[in-house]
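Running co-folding for S-adenosyl-L-homocysteine.
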Amino acid sequence: MFPVTKEAHGIGPVSPVGRGLCNLFRGDLSMAGFPIFVELGRTPPLIVGGGELALVKARLLLKRANRVLFAADRVVPGIAKLVAEGRAERISGVPDVETLRGRPVVISATEDDAEDARISHLAREIGVPVNVPDRPELCSFSLAAIVDRYPVTFAIGTEGDAPVLATRLRAWLEQELSPQLGSLARIAGDFRDRVAQKLRPGVQRRVFWDRVFSGPASAAILAGDEAEGVRRIEAELDKEDTTAPRVGRVILVGAGPGDPELLTLKAVRALKAADVILVDNLAGTGVLEHARREAEIIPVGKAKGRHSKTQAEINALILTHAKAGKTVVRLKGGDPFIFGRGGEEVDTLRASGIACEVVPGITAATAAAASLQIPLTHRDISHSVTFISGHSAGDGAANFDHVDFRALGEGSNTLAVYMGVATAGALAQTLIDAGWSPATPVMAVERASHANERRVATSLDVVADDAKRLALSGPAILIVGEIAGLTPAGAVERIAAEIDPQFQPVLSIRSQGDFAHA
Ligand code: SAH
């Protein structure tokens, strides 16, 4: 198979290309190339032209074609040599439509503009893919830069925007990829029938191959010891228990605050392994780029116009899929065990005897602190940090009876308030009644780690008004305490400073070095 990119134009729906392309590319897709691998088959591809450019293109096609056909009256010595070696044939004269018909591809490299245009036109008329080097308007496909580890082929395309970038990427891949990668794929291919006979399709086969490709068998082959690799694959296959009933597993995964870079390596691995992903809307779409293309993604969070699933419905869905033998990822914003109801899901699974694993995530408070560059604890001004929720499980009204704010107010302590914007006024009053100064600094961070993150510096007495006035409507976390008065990094809407000229940062951070002792 030979990698080319076809104009998506006229090829039908592009959805199977994966969420990645659709998400990254939001402009006009009509001229964007779709990568496919074309069989160059028994009918040799046609190259029109006999110069050095034609020779270069022929060498490229000969990576996958047994033979090519040149249409040229005169040829350079390199082409004559290919003909002598039996890798190419040559015909003379101007090729007509019958010479083009049935070709897997045609490349017109005559270096004569009018002739190239004629060939392009003829080929398009009969639906034969055609390429004219450096003339995108005459091409119905483009040739990708190739890294060849047959049968593994990497095709790199940049839509002609950055050919030098493609060359650099190719050089980088050449250097990074073991020359034995092709052997690894070939050996896996040799085992396919045996694996298919012994293991059930779907999860069992995938888990087996995952183990092979991430384990010592692969390592041996990539290091050049094929015999050892084959032995180890045999051993893995012998170990497989084909009588065990199909049992799925569930991985509760913390997706972090939204920025996919803040996923853990384990979270990425879990996403890649998942057959089914049940996802909160807090989890952010970027993180789903790591899911397999075939994975079923079930949104279970609240969204406009969609009924959000109850916890009982979510638990039931997890169980149904796990019992069907699937690998289920329950993807939750931040950390699953911080105001994430992860505990309830784990209880349900335990009660049903389903294996469960928990992958922690970066919680909103630490993400907000990192982006403000304000530490949550500090040797001098914050001895503890308490995560509280502004939302109560019952009617949604704030209920802070369970926290001893008086005790926390006496020392230097920090509160990180989740789901606290709507009830910020009630919380502020409770804190002030418990002896906290009305001037206690508050930092509100909305959509921490997202591109449209907003930070607001305010104080207890005015936090509710500020939140309303700034229409903080996305998920936001409040950091309350002296620590919130440290000068934060980057732009902050310093609302409180406008209203209250007395509002001053408690300390200012001179350099990162100040954190060294924190
Ligand atoms: N398990 C999550 C919290 C879920 S509760 C975690 O560990 O982060 C939902 C609340 O989390 C939101 O109301 C908001 O207060 C906070 N939150 C979640 N993602 C956030 C983000 N990116 N920025 C700010 N706050 C966020």
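Result summary
Residues 2-143 form a domain with the Rossmann fold fold (CATH 3.40.50.720).
The chain has four domains: 2-143, 181-238, 249-362, 365-494.
Job closed.
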